Amino acid sequence: MAKQTVAEQFVDILVRAGVRRLYGVVGDSLNPVVDAIRRNSAIDWIQVRHEEAAAFAAGAEAQLTGKLAACAGSCGPGNLHLINGLYDAHRSMAPVLALASHIPSSEIGSGYFQETHPDQLFRECSHYCELISSPQQMPRVPQTAIQHAIGRGGVSVVALPGDIAAKPAPERAEEHALVTARPTVRPGDTEIDALARMVDEADRIALFCGSGTAGAHDEVMAFAERVKSPVGHALRGKEWIQFDNPYDVGMSGLLGYGAAYEATNECDLLMLLGTDFPYNAFLPDDAKIVQVDVRPEHLGRRSKLDLAVWGDVRETLRCLTPKVRARTDRRFLDKMLKKHAEALEGVVSAYTRKVEKRTPIHPEYVASVLDDEAAEDAVFTVDTGMNNVWAARYLTPNGRRRVIGSFTHGSMANALPQAVGAQFLDRKRQVVAMSGDGGLAMLMGELLTLVQYELPVKIVLFDNSSLGMVELEMMVSGLPAYGTGNRNPDFAALAEAVGAYGVRVEKPKDLRGALRSAFRHKGPALVDVVTDPNALSIPPRIRAEMVTGFALSASKVVLEGGVGKMVQMARSNLRNVPRP
């Protein structure tokens, strides 16, 4: 029996860790690894058109499954292209292993053709980043990389010179059982008791939930019921906590809506559950703050805490809820539910009422119709920019849908490549990329990936011929919009030209039928919706204190605009408020 090569052993380790696809672009330094994949039926090589897309696709897989996914780039420029998608995966806590193949080992340090130093380049966007300079480092280095990616939640990078990959693997190499899932983390009894005392001493409690509440919906609802607290959420917490939530008061942050800001600022105890919400200007100055997070490095880095609790939200609440006194006083909760319903009633129809004949089409209307027509278990991938606003306001969570985007890293062009990774997981599940024209154009080559692999991704393109969020950033800074206009082609015709289904929509009355025809199509489809470039979600008052990005104005106002079906949820929750 022929000896295994380092590349073959590396691929076998990936398979043992549950990796079923390696996304990348082939190149000479990767040849031994790609050939090892060709001969291994348990794993596929997925050829994308840009390595950045490979990292985004792997990150999407990892976010949707919680399991390890992988990508690869050839030496020098090839693996360097991975970096943006890896930053996104790392900041999203997605377990991803990146293989950065390297120049011949004997040439490292000589200024050789395409030489970079990947073991240094990727350190900031990884938990583990090491160079294999000898076969004797196998299999320990990739095994250690996998443990870091899964155990700590994020990226690991292995740099592997092509000549080392082709060499025989060491005999009798020690392989150990791989960690393929993360444990739950329970706080100690001292922290639970201290938290219970703070809850019992507080009069008005508010919960603010992030992505760390995934899998803890029932526990959050049970705790909110016991202490009669309103429940707000950050953008990444929306899909986990908003559905079936009679305590919902909306979302805080500059994309927010409803009474989440009021609830978090009028309470005397704010509990931050599984959120690393970065905008501390939205947080209260005079309330006590408790933060519960499974990542200890997140605790207290956004605001001054009165108690830091290191633990999984679900396990923490399971331990905490029986220890705190049950309450009957709903006055604070009911006050916030009323404020929430009033806030939504005032803006719900701002952009979706009587728009069937208005052109250009309002993007809010597009998002509202998309929410109606998409499958109950659809996966939405959302481009950064104004699409974040439309997704936050109009996509209705139900416990089965998923919504992912570059919500922490904030990269353009994420939606299409993330849709690639999402669709490879399940070809029968509907995957919808909510793309902006700027984002789609940046990594438009991945349309070819959809066609090549016959992936039935549906791209709904919000085509306003501008970088809308950047225009908003300029406006709130008192600057005229400049350099934000795009001269766009007919994207539907372009999709047709490369072999996908394409339809262009310029009139609102044609939108619903276009979406339905695209969703019925068995292959990739693109719906190019020409939207109003002036439909910017602008705060009701622009002040000089407002700064670029998602910073907050001194008035702490939220964006105007409709909120889709969320008004119905607010109305339903309002029925729980006792009438005088």
From TrEMBL:
<dbReference type="InterPro" id="IPR012001">
    <property type="entry name" value="Thiamin_PyroP_enz_TPP-bd_dom"/>
</dbReference>
<dbReference type="InterPro" id="IPR047211">
    <property type="entry name" value="POXB-like"/>
</dbReference>
<dbReference type="InterPro" id="IPR047210">
    <property type="entry name" value="TPP_PYR_POXB-like"/>
</dbReference>
<dbReference type="InterPro" id="IPR029061">
    <property type="entry name" value="THDP-binding"/>
</dbReference>
<keyword id="KW-0786">Thiamine pyrophosphate</keyword>
<dbReference type="InterPro" id="IPR029035">
    <property type="entry name" value="DHS-like_NAD/FAD-binding_dom"/>
</dbReference>
<protein>
    <submittedName>
        <fullName>Pyruvate dehydrogenase</fullName>
    </submittedName>
</protein>
<keyword id="KW-0670">Pyruvate</keyword>
<dbReference type="Pfam" id="PF00205">
    <property type="entry name" value="TPP_enzyme_M"/>
</dbReference>
<dbReference type="InterPro" id="IPR011766">
    <property type="entry name" value="TPP_enzyme_TPP-bd"/>
</dbReference>
<feature type="domain" description="Thiamine pyrophosphate enzyme TPP-binding">
    <location>
        <begin position="383"/>
        <end position="529"/>
    </location>
</feature>
<feature type="domain" description="Thiamine pyrophosphate enzyme central">
    <location>
        <begin position="192"/>
        <end position="320"/>
    </location>
</feature>
<feature type="domain" description="Thiamine pyrophosphate enzyme N-terminal TPP-binding">
    <location>
        <begin position="5"/>
        <end position="120"/>
    </location>
</feature>
<dbReference type="InterPro" id="IPR012000">
    <property type="entry name" value="Thiamin_PyroP_enz_cen_dom"/>
</dbReference>
<dbReference type="Pfam" id="PF02776">
    <property type="entry name" value="TPP_enzyme_N"/>
</dbReference>
<comment type="similarity">
    <text>Belongs to the TPP enzyme family.</text>
</comment>
<dbReference type="InterPro" id="IPR047212">
    <property type="entry name" value="TPP_POXB-like"/>
</dbReference>
<dbReference type="Pfam" id="PF02775">
    <property type="entry name" value="TPP_enzyme_C"/>
</dbReference>
